[in-house]
Q: What sequence folds into this?
């Protein structure tokens, strides 16, 4: 087991629905430590840059439009196996498949508006943390 850092985004559907506090509480109750955090309204260029890996996907335009619709809360989470742990706390990408007790089961509407983002690997976590918090150390 290793201490890791991962990137979390509380997305526009969740900030619009006043779920920021509930989601942060679920993160902390799962034993993950919030070590950096900011609320920001992403520009089109920032959303396109963050999701550049999905640029060729048919849903890219919709994704960028959604992510720039309202403010988001971006944070760095630290803990044992934080990448996998946070993915468990979030639940499946498609909320219809998410387990009871997960963030997406509780708050997400559909696969597009799915309330939260979490890094999918340690390598991507490092890139994503550097994207939003260039001065925060990556473990
Ligand atoms: P996220 O984990 O932030 O990474 C990429 C995002 O693209 C994903 O969550 C969803 O919000 C979105 N996404 C993935 N698949 C689809 C889809 N089929 N239709 C619309 N949006 C999608």
A:
């Amino acid at each position: 087991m290793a201490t890791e850092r991962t990137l979390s985004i509380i997305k526009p559907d969740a900030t619009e629905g006043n779920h920021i506090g509930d989601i942060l509480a679920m993160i902390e109750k799962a034993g993950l430590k919030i070590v950096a955090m900011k609320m920001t309204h992403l520009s089109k260029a920032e959303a396109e840059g963050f999701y550049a890996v999905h640029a060729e996907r048919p849903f890219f335009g919709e994704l960028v439009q959604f992510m720039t619709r309202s403010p988001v809360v971006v944070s760095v989470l630290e803990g044992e196996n934080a990448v996998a742990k946070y993915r468990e706390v979030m639940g499946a990408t498609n909320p219809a498949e998410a387990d009871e007790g997960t963030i997406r089961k509780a708050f997400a509407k559909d696969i597009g508006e799915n309330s939260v983002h979490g890094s999918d690997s340690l390598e991507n976590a490092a890139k994503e943390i550097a994207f939003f918090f260039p001065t925060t150390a990556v473990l």
The radius of gyration is 14 Å. The mean pLDDT is 96. The chain has seven helices and four strands.
